[in-house]
Amino acid sequence: MIEFKNVGLVYPNGTEGLKNINVKINDGEFVVIVGLSGAGKSTFIRSINRLVTPTSGSLLVDGEDILNYHSGNLRKLRTKVGMIFQNYNLVKRSNVFKNVLAGRLGHTGTLRSIFNLYSNEDKALAYESLKRVNIEEKIYNRADELSGGQQQRVSIARVLTQKPKYILADEPVASLDPPTSHQVMTYLRKINKEDNITTIVNLHFIDMAMEYADRIIGMRAGEVVFDGPVAEVSEKTFEEIYGRSIREDDLRGGAEE
Amino acid sequence: MTNETHSLTNKSIPLYPAKTKLQVTIIFFVVLGIYIFSMAWTQRDMVSGLSGALGNMYRVIEKFFPPNFSILPDIWNALAQTIQMAIIATTIAAILTVPLAVLSAQNITTFKPLYYLTRTILNLLRTIPDLVLAVIFVGLFGIGIFPGILALTVFSLGILAKLISETIESVDMNPLEAMRASGGNVFQVIWYALVPQVLPQFTSLVLYVFEINIRASVVLGMVGAGGIGLVLNQQLKFYNYPNAMTIIIVIFVTVLIIEYISNKLREALL
Ligand SMILES: Nc1ncnc2c1ncn2[C@@H]1O[C@H](COP(=O)(O)OP(=O)(O)OP(=O)(O)O)[C@@H](O)[C@H]1O
Ligand SMILES: [Mg+2]
């Protein structure tokens, strides 16, 4: 369980990224965070694995306040929180398999990982993860030879190999076309349901949020302005979150016909 | 309304603010002034020197020919020493460069004092000319190949660490963030996300510095740092110009061959 208690974050330049956030995310939930650009979605998500550090309040992950974690604890936290990025963040010159095995880094000693001494279980797990997102035939291709959608699937496989308890995804489909976006979101939801991995996704497409989320959190100017199950959400809710009427480009479109 | 847009298009908007333009103009004329002044100044010394030099040139060149190729068997050893010096120095420098380059890359070493410290040390290192280094080390350890290796190592370390830290600063930081987010420690992040990105550039720069070292080691030899430069210096001192000419030709051919090989290797890498 993840629990934000009065969490605030002020960036060094004075920008308030988060203002007094109080949110509880239960195990196994699929939460989508929506909000305009600059609303604080990335800041919210990146607080959970401490890529950014909130400046006030407390943030509990499995009952422990992670805000005072240091290097050792931090590594342990990050091994159980996997992350997916808008730009896939693969090592372009390395092959797919090596990229996916990097998901084991947090579980592997420094020397073992430097000499590529992964256990057979780790390798089998990496291959299994590739298979789950149907990209195993690209195992020895260099990452930069793949299309955007394929690269994002490899990055999902990397996170799966990590065997996380939580998955954070920051705009995972923002660089993809509609059909590929739906494919990636479908994988994420499938994993969420099959492995019971709590998943938090930032999206700015309303229709996708509605289609895949169990629960939607709306943010505006660093604050949570809506939090509720998807059944309670209507177009009016989004208009309130965005503070304006819904436009064409708030929709991804291309849902399975 | 139409009037306004009209005036906007008519009055051309400058690409740079007026202040920048003025500054650039002033700097330009100052630099031009310095050029003209120094040209006038050196001309005074050069004109008389030039006509004399042209006359001397013929007499000097004449002395070097024909080269005496019979000494060839005696210089292979010295040539091999020169190449060894360059290889050993480049290898040591390439190894020492790794930590120094990482520590002096702003995007990796986020702890500012450490970054500034390494930067400063490297900058100081680079201000010492290779010849001065050789003179110092020859003074400390006596004539021979060892002070030559030390001088070359320090010299190439300065160049290499600087160039490689700049390569590191230009890498894509996204994969590094991903490795950090999946629980990797500093060494794992560097090994998995940074090394693959800089390795081709690293190898290419090491080869380039090796080329520089071959040439530098000849010059260093002339101040006593061993190798073929030392032999060349001795022959020149004893006015054995035909022998010296042979050595010069051998050096020339060696440098050409090594540059060719290293160029081919680098082409294959990038
Ligand atoms: N490193 C930083 N330093 C200073 N301010 C920052 C930093 N990162 C983000 N901000 C500011 O914090 C606010 C929230 O940013 P954040 O990236 O969380 O928004 P977002 O909702 O993810 O937006 P987007 O949809 O554009 O990704 C913005 O005003 C942004 O300018
Ligand atoms: Mg964002």
UniProtKB/TrEMBL annotation, chain A:
Gene encoding the protein: phnC_2
SMART domains: AAA
Protein name from the UniProt record: Phosphonates import ATP-binding protein PhnC
PROSITE patterns for this protein: ABC_TRANSPORTER_1 (PS00211), ABC_TRANSPORTER_2 (PS50893)
Organism: Ornithinibacillus bavariensis
Cellular component terms (Gene Ontology): membrane
Chloroplast among keywords: no
Keyword field contains Nucleotide-binding: yes
Keywords of the record: ATP-binding, Cell membrane, Membrane, Nucleotide-binding, Phosphonate transport, Translocase, Transport
Domain ABC transporter: 2-246
GO terms of molecular function: ABC-type phosphonate transporter activity; ATP binding; ATP hydrolysis activity
Automatic annotation (TrEMBL), chain B:
Compartment(s): Cell membrane
Its membrane topology: Multi-pass membrane protein
One GO CC term, this protein: plasma membrane
Domain ABC transmembrane type-1 intervals: 79-262
InterPro entries per the UniProt record, alphabetical: MetI-like, MetI-like_sf, PhnE/PtxC
Superkingdom per UniProt: Bacteria
Keywords: Cell membrane, Membrane, Transmembrane, Transmembrane helix, Transport
PROSITE patterns: ABC_TM1
GO MF entries: ABC-type phosphonate transporter activity
Primary localization: membrane
Bilayer-spanning residue ranges: 21-41, 83-103, 124-143, 189-210, 216-232, 244-262
Protein family (similarity comment): Belongs to the binding-protein-dependent transport system permease family.
Protein name: Phosphonate ABC transporter permease
